[in-house]
Structure formats: C-alpha cells, structure tokens
Amino acid sequence: MIDKFIDEINEALSHDLYFAALSLVLTLPDICGRAEYPSAGVTKRYITWYNEYIGQYDRCPCDDCKETQMPYLSGEVIYNLRNSFLHQGTPNIDSSQIKDPSNQLDEFTLVVEKKNEFDIYADSSSIIESSQGKIEHRSYRVNIRRLCMIITLSAKSYYNNNKDKFNFFNYKILDWDKEIEALHQLNAVQE
C-alpha cells in the first residue's frame, strides 16, 4: 500500500497538483508510525517516527546553532501542518501547539515549484534578533516537492525494511476497469 501512495504522490506532482500530493504525503508518517509504535497514541507515534527517520537530519548540526537553533522541519511542525491541512484545509502552523521554542514559527510559507531538471529543491529558515539578542521573528519556507521527496523516500525505505510490521493492512481493492477489460479480452478470445 505504501508503494501505491508514493506512486500517487509522484503522479500528483507530475501534474503540479501540489495540495493533492501534500495531503497524501502527510499521511505517510501516520502509517509508518503505526507500524513502528502500534501501542502509542497517534500524536506520539507520528512525531516520534518523523523525528527518528526524517526530522533529526533536518536540524542544523553546527555548534553555532546549538544556542540559537534555526527553525527546522521537526515532527511537531509536520504534525501541526498535517492537522491544519487535513482537518481544516489550511496550511497554517499553530505555534502554541509546538513545544520546541526553536520551531515556534511566526511565519510559515509553502513553496510550489515546477519540476526542475535535477530534482533539487530547497527550504529556508530564518530568525530575526533584536539588538539585545532576543529572537523577534522565526520563519520557515518549505518547498512542497522537497517535503514530498524526503517523506516518500523515508517511508519507502522504512516500509521495505519493515514489511512485517504492516500486518494491519487487511483490505482488498478491486480495480473495476481492469476486471471489465479482462472480461472483454476473454470474450474476444472466445469469439
């Protein structure tokens, strides 16, 4: 099922359907989080899975940033985006719901960009400090293509290495068009 989700995310991006791709990609940490932490609550498993497999690599590792951490795409930020976008239809980030002070954003921007030749897309973060060194403004711009790429690649890798944990997928999907096509082919052979 993960492969089908990823295929549809990529198909949506190939047609510049950014919000369709974003809607679907934001569900992947839910699915993978359920596989990795089946007894945890939704919030905890989403944030924990995202941070473990993606977020920790987005955080600035340099020593200069340890004191004044730049905003980054943490599990809290992505979970907040997921809730706002999937349940309210807005890509707002509610900083009051984010515990990590470095990610309590004053401004959050989604960037849409057509596919480029090398599939390289960038995010950016910034902070504005007062003359007294107090942080007055935190912002983050996320490129939807980049976000989709990092989540789909991480989810695909996780799924390929942990297929046995996805035993909660118990469903059938019937592709009616393929069934009808098979019947037409069978009828053509019999004639």
Commentary on this structure:
It is a single chain. With 191 residues, the protein is mainly alpha-helical. It contains 8 helices and 3 strands, in the order H-H-H-H-H-H-E-E-E-H-H. It has helices at 2-14, 18-25, 28-36, 42-58, 64-67, 75-88, 144-161, 176-190; strands at 107-111, 124-129, 135-143. Strands 1-3-2 form a 3-stranded mixed sheet. A hairpin with a 5-residue loop joins strand 2 and strand 3. Helix 2 runs parallel beside helix 7.
Q: Short summary of the structure?
A:
With 191 residues, the protein is mainly alpha-helical.
Q: What attributes does this structure have?
A:
191 residues, mainly alpha
Topology:
Elements (H helix, E strand, L loop, with lengths): L1 H13 L3 H8 L2 H9 L5 H17 L5 H4 L7 H14 L18 E5 L12 E6 L5 E9 H18 L14 H15 L1
Parallel strand pairs: 1-3
Antiparallel strand pairs: 2-3
Helix pairs in contact: 1-2, 1-7, 2-7, 3-4, 4-6
Question: What share of residues is helical?
Answer: 40-55%
Shape designation = elongated
Total domains? 1
Mean of residue pLDDT?
92
pLDDT below 50 for ≥5 consecutive residues: which ranges?
none
State the end-to-end distance: 37 Å
CA-based gyration radius: 20 Å
Q: Proportion of β residues?
A: 5-15%
**Class of secondary structure makeup:** mainly alpha
- Supply the number of helical segments: 8
